[in-house]
Amino acid sequence: QVQLVESGGGLVQPGGSLRLSCAASQRLFSLFAMGWYRQAPGKQREWIASIRPSGHPEYADSMKGRFTISRDNAKTTVYLQMNSLKSEDTAVYYCNAQRADTNYWGQGIQVAVSS
């Protein structure tokens, strides 16, 4: 099984930055595509970004320019750098790992953007 643990969330002021981390237990981490999703209260879970095993990133259009996804295969960790945060970014953020048609999810971590 793949276990995913998110960290780095918390409270941040509008315009601030935050870096989320997702540590994976799988020793074959480098074979998984990784992604970040979020879910705000009363909203559906939405895709933020993903990164292929090769390191190639993809972003939702609304996230381009503010969020950056990266991975460190040696540390079996994927990161999400979030800049210029807005109150609308307040949500629970989830880490995702995918291989073939199988998806694994972390428990989620709260990010609150407020003054």
Low-pLDDT sequence parts = none
Task: Give me the strand/helix succession.
Answer: EEEEEEEEEEE
**Strand-pairing-aware structural class:** mainly beta
Number of strands: 11
Helix content percent band: under 10%
Tally of individual helices? 0
> Which band does the percent of strand residues land in?
over 45%
Nearest-integer average pLDDT: 96
Span between termini: 40 Å
User: Any idea what the radius of gyration is?
Assistant: 13 Å
The biggest beta sheet is recorded as: 7 strands, mixed
Globally, the shape reads globular
Describe this structure in words.
This protein is an all-beta fold. It has strands at residues 4-7, 10-12, 18-24, 33-39, 46-51, 57-59, 67-72, 77-82, 91-99, 102-105, 109-113. Strands 2, 4, 5, 6, 9, 10 and 11 form a 7-stranded mixed β-sheet that branches. The protein has a 4-stranded antiparallel β-sheet with strand order 1-3-8-7, with no helix packed on it. A hairpin with a 6-residue loop joins strand 4 and strand 5.
